[in-house]
Amino acid sequence: MAIEREDSARGITTVVIPAAGMGTRFLPATKTVPKELLPVVDTPGIELIAEEAASVGARRLAVITAPDKQEVMRHFEAFPQLVETLDARGKDEQVSKVKRANQLIHPVAVEQEKPLGLGHAVGLAEEVLGEDEDSFAVMLPDDIVLPATVMAEMARVRADLGGSVLCAFEVPREQTYNYGVFDVEDTADPAVKKVVGMVEKPAVEDAPSNLVATGRYLLDRKIFDALRRIKPGKGGELQLTDAIELLIEEGEPVHVVVHKGKRHDLGNPGGYIPANVDFGLRDEKYGPTLYKAIKQIMAEYEAEHGLS
Ligand code: UTP
């Protein structure tokens, strides 16, 4: 494990976490609570992503924040008084929970004044990258990708093939209209495809494949130049996928790793709730009771709806 960390660390120093969006699908909660701080069981989504970033050997977390979402960065502070109080009360487990985010990785805030799109948010990260960093990772805090080793695989693909590497999931063809869909060609490795194009939320009959984009990107530094050259797309926002398409058009290598694991979309209640059920069931403390409670709820629901 230590060897893997060291190995992939050579590829990824900075992980960018865009966290400046409005989170409108979570209103009214997001009037005051940033979406990225909503908990999966007891841990905010952004802390899970910071853990993933640390586990692939990254050293810097560039968090893109909005002026009214200061709490996101606060989550990574040390909270000495809280630690002291908990310590004095002998609450060791809680102490380690409070300390964890602060000890994982070095966070740096980059402010996005207005939510001008994911592409705009990622473009702002250029200022924190070291001169020697010719690539960086982007992890969307909305997206839980398990197992969390996919970024290390993506780093290996970049080391072999250069350019940018994205993460793809297979979905049933009839669901492709919800996603960014890759147009791909095979490579020698069945788990790696060369991307020749991307279509955002196509009609099912127009989907070029059943491989869809998820929130993990390993991007060549050239993306910044591409981001400066694109025009606002859907919703008047600067789209990251438009900049990636530009790189593809200009002949830059872009590949996807076809990930066989699991994915949870925390960006809307419909994905967030199943994520909590899944993590909750696997939680040592809450799992067994939750399992019984869910069975009970299911039985009641099925009786009410004539499903049993
Ligand atoms: P989303 O589109 O899922 O997030 O962007 P959102 O805009 O907050 O959500 P809704 O649609 O209003 O419900 C994916 C990620 O990109 C960030 C978001 O914070 C989220 O983590 N983002 C999006 C930015 O940082 N800046 C932006 O301008 C847009």
Beta-strand portion reads 15-25%
Mean pLDDT value: 93
Outline the low-pLDDT stretches: 1-9
Cα gyration radius (Å): 20 Å
Small molecules in complex: uridine 5'-triphosphate
Strand order of the largest sheet: 5-4-1-6-11-8-12-10-9
Number of strands: 13
Query: How would you sum up the major sheet?
Result: 9 strands, mixed
Category from helices, strands and their pairing = alpha/beta
Helix count?
Answer: 11
- Give the overall silhouette: globular
User: What is the CA-CA span between the terminal residues?
Assistant: 47 Å
Helix percentage: 25-40%
Helices and strands, in order, run as HEEEHEHHHEHEEHEEEEHHEEHH
Catalytic activity: alpha-D-glucose 1-phosphate + UTP + H(+) = UDP-alpha-D-glucose + diphosphate
Keywords: Nucleotidyltransferase, Transferase
Pfam family, one: NTP_transferase
Protein name: UTP--glucose-1-phosphate uridylyltransferase
Walk me through this protein's architecture.
By secondary structure, the chain is of the alpha/beta class. Helices cover 36% and strands 23% of the residues. The strands form 3 sheets. The protein has a 9-stranded mixed beta sheet with strand order 5-4-1-6-11-8-12-10-9. Strands 2-3 form a two-stranded antiparallel ribbon. Strands 7-13 form a two-stranded antiparallel ribbon. Helix 4 (80-88) packs antiparallel against helix 5 (92-104), helix 8 packs across helix 9 and helix 10 (269-281) crosses helix 11. The longest helix has 18 residues, at 287-304. The chain is globular and about 60 Å long. The structure holds uridine 5'-triphosphate (UTP). GO terms for molecular function: UTP:glucose-1-phosphate uridylyltransferase activity. One of its GO terms (biological process) is UDP-alpha-D-glucose metabolic process. It holds the Pfam family NTP_transferase.
